[in-house]
User: What shape does this take?
Amino acid sequence: MAAQKPTLPKGTRDFGPADVQKRKHILNAIEKVFKKYGFMPLETPTMENLSTLEGKYGEEGDKLLFRILDSGDYLKSLKEHNDKILSDESQDATFAPSVSGKLIDLDSKAATKFISEKGLRYDLTVPFARYVVMHRNEITFPFKRYQMQPVWRADRPQKGRYREFWQCDADVVGVVGSDSLLNELDLIQIYDEAFTKLGIINYEIRINNRKVLAGIAEVVKSIDVMNNIAVAIDKLDKIGEDGVRKELGEQGFSDEELNTLFGIITIKGENKEILNQLKDKLKSSHEGLKGIEELEFILTSNPKPNINLTLDFSLARGLSYYTGCIFEVTSNDGTLKSSIGGGGRYDNLTGIFGLPNVSGVGISFGLDRIYDVMEELKLFPAQLRATSTQVLFCHFDEATLLYCLPALKLLRDAGIAAEVFPDNKKLGKQLDYANALQIPFAAIAGETEMQQQVFTVKNLITGEQQTCTIQTLIGLVGQ
Amino acid sequence: MAAQKPTLPKGTRDFGPADVQKRKHILNAIEKVFKKYGFMPLETPTMENLSTLEGKYGEEGDKLLFRILDSGDYLKSLKEHNDKILSDESQDATFAPSVSGKLIDLDSKAATKFISEKGLRYDLTVPFARYVVMHRNEITFPFKRYQMQPVWRADRPQKGRYREFWQCDADVVGVVGSDSLLNELDLIQIYDEAFTKLGIINYEIRINNRKVLAGIAEVVKSIDVMNNIAVAIDKLDKIGEDGVRKELGEQGFSDEELNTLFGIITIKGENKEILNQLKDKLKSSHEGLKGIEELEFILTSNPKPNINLTLDFSLARGLSYYTGCIFEVTSNDGTLKSSIGGGGRYDNLTGIFGLPNVSGVGISFGLDRIYDVMEELKLFPAQLRATSTQVLFCHFDEATLLYCLPALKLLRDAGIAAEVFPDNKKLGKQLDYANALQIPFAAIAGETEMQQQVFTVKNLITGEQQTCTIQTLIGLVGQ
Assistant: This one.
C-alpha cells in the first residue's frame, strides 16, 4: 500500500505528553474541589441513541450532532422505504428517483433516520437526565453528580471552539433537598476554589435570576415575553443595544417598552445598591421580587466576600430550561472573551424522558477554554514535566548497564520513577535524552563507579555532581 | 413532545458513582506503574480520518469500524457520482437505479466512501503510529508513551466484549534504544506490579517469540509458512488440535509435518527444560535459535523470579506485525478465559504512513476485562466508596442549618470533604442519606449544640456518638 500522509479530522487535536500533563492539572484541580463538596462521579457512553439526543438542543443543535452510520447493510431500510413509496402513488416520493432516473430527490436530512440511529454525546446534561430516569430507583436523592468527559459538536472550528472538547459538570438534582439556595452557594464556592487554585485570580462570576428576567418582562410588557427578551439580550455582546432594540422592535416592542427594558438591564453600581434600585423598579412584579430575594440571599450568605460576584441583569443564557439563578464565568485577563464556565437552576430536567419533578442546579467548566486562558497567562506550574522520571541511569557498556539494573529496581521499589537508557549509546546521547525530557537527575555508572559500588549523580538542573551510594541517591531524590 | 423511554445503544454502558470509583482504582494503579517506569501520557482524538483507520485491521476490522456520517448535505457527492455514471454509459452503474426506477443497485459498502470520511478510534496503536509520524521532528526517541482511552468496535456484544471499552497501552518506540530486550523486561515488570497491586495474584504471562515460530516453520516445512502456522495455532483454544491439523492440512501440510509441529508446540515442563529441548529441535534454524536466545535472556534477567512467566510455543497472537517476543496475560482465577493483557515486539510501526525504521515493543491492559475479573473475585478494596464525603452536617431548622455553615467551611478549608443536608427535613431522612452513601460521620446540630457551640458527632459505621467542637471534629476525621 502506498504511504499516506496522515492528518487529523478538522477541529480535533492530539495531546502530547506535555499537553496531557497540563490538562490533567486542570482536571485534577476541578475534580478535587467537586469531591470536597460531596459530588460523585458519573460517566456515560460516547454514543447515545439519536432518539435521546435529537430535539433537545434546538434545530441548530440537531444540525451539529455527529451521527454514526449504522453497521452492515445500512441502506437496506432506506431502499425498502423507497420501494414502498414507489408502490404507493398517493405518497410523496421523497426518496424516489426523478423521472430521468437520477437520484436528485434523495434528501440528506430526510434520509438520515434510515441510515443512522446513534450519535456522539453533545453535552453532559442530556445523558445525565437519561441516566437519572433509567436509574431513578437506585439513586439516593439529592443526587450530587459530577461528570468530566469530552463532547462533540460539528461546529465551525475557531478560537476557543473545537469539535471535540471537554466539559466538567456538577449538578445537584432531586425532589428532596435540591431546592435549597445553599446549593447555589456551594457551586459559587466551587468556582472560586477551582479558579483560585488554578491561578485564574481575576475571574468574574456574573449572576442573574430568571425570575428577575420574568419580572422585567412583566414590567416592560408582560410576563409572556420573558423568553423573547432572554433570547434577544443574550446576544447583547454580539449585536449591541441597537441590534437588540431592532430585534425586539420587529417583535412588536414599542420604543417606550425598550427604553424601560434598557433602563433596567443597564443599572450600574455596587451589587447592594443596584439590587435596591431594581427592587423599586420591579415592585409590581411578585415573580421579580422573588428573584431579587434569591439574589440577595446569595450575596449576603456568600461566606467568601472577596469572590468576584457581579450582578448582571442583562445575563440571560439562551437555554430556555433555566428557571432561577443563572451564572456565567469569564476571565478578565487574557484575550478570550467567551465564558469559561456557566450554569444555573432548572425545574424540569427529566420531563422529556417521562420523569417529572426532578429539579436542580448545576455548573459547568470548559476545560479547553480554561487551558487556553492558562496557556496565554502562563499559569501552568513550572514543575509540570512531560515525564515523571526522576532519575535516568547512564552507562558505558554492557557491564555497566547490567550494574545499573539492581539499583534501578531499588529506586522503583522505593516509589521513585526511574529508567535506564536501554541501549549502549555514547554518554552524551544519553544525557541529551535526559535533558530533552527535563529529567532532573542522571546516575552515571562507569568502570570506577561499578568497582566502588556507587554512582556519579548529576543534577541536570544545577549541574552539581556528587558520588552517591544507591541509598544516598534514594534519599537525595526522595526528598 | 411525548415522553420517551430512554435506552442505551447496544454494547455500551453507564458507569454510576460506585463503578467509576472502581474503574479509577484500576486506571490509577496502572497509570502509576506506567509513570514509575518512565512512560509519558498521550491522548488522541476519538475521531480519526477513515483513511487513517481503514486497511489497518484486516477486512474483519474494517467491518467493525464505527463510521461518522458526514455533516450537512452528505448525499451530495454520492448523487454527483451517480449522475456522472449515468452520463457515462461505459461505466458500471453501481449506484444507478435499476430500469424500474428503484434504488436496488445502491450498495451500502460502496456508498460509504461518499457519505463518511471519519470513524471512531478502533485501537490505540494506529492513532499512536499516526501521531509519531506527524510529530516525528518534536519527539525525543526512544519515545516511551502510555495511552489510556476508550476504543469502539461494532462487535457482537458478549461476555468480556463491549462496543465501547478501554485500552491502556504502553509502548517504547524509536530507531535508538528501542531494540534492547531491557524494554521487554520492564514491560513484564509493569504487568507484575500492576496486577499484584490490584490483587490479581494468580495471573499468568505466557510468552513466546515470533522468531521461534519462524524457526518452527523452518523445521516443520519452510520459513515462508510462518504466518500460516501462526494464524492456525492462534485458534488452538477454539478449534483444538484436530481443527488446527485440518486447517493446515488443507493448506498442504503433510501428517508428518503436522506431527513435527505438534511435537514442538506441546513440549511441557519447566521453562529451562523446555527451552533446552527446543534448542535441540530448532538447532538447524538460525532464526529459531535467535528467538530462543532472546527468551533465555528474558527468563534469566528477570529480576523478580516469582513472576509467573510461562513459555508457550503455541502462543501466536494473530496480528502479523509482531516480529519478536510476544505476551499474553490471563487470570487463572475466575471464569474469564479471555486475555486481560497482551503485546509484543514489532519492526515497522509507522511504515504504512511513510516513516520507515520505527520499531518498538508494547503491551496493553484491557480495563473492562480486568474490572470483570476483579468484580468476580471481589478484589476491590472495601473502603472504595461512591462519595468522598467524610462528614454530613445534619440540623433541625433554619437556625441550626445556618449554624452549620461556618463549621462546614472550616472542614473544607482543612481539606476534608463535607456537605450539609441542603433542606429542612427530618433528622431520620438526613441520616438515611448519609447511610445510603456510606458517609462515615454525621455532625448533628440541635438547639443545645448550637448554644454550646459544639456538634453531636455520630460515627455511622460503629454507632459511637460524642460531643465535639469543630476543632475536635477536624482532628477526628482528618486522622
In short: Chain B touches chain A through 122 residues (CB under 8 Å). The longest strand of chain B covers residues 164-174. Residues 142 and 230 of chain B are 29 Å apart (CA to CA). The mean pLDDT of chain B is 91.
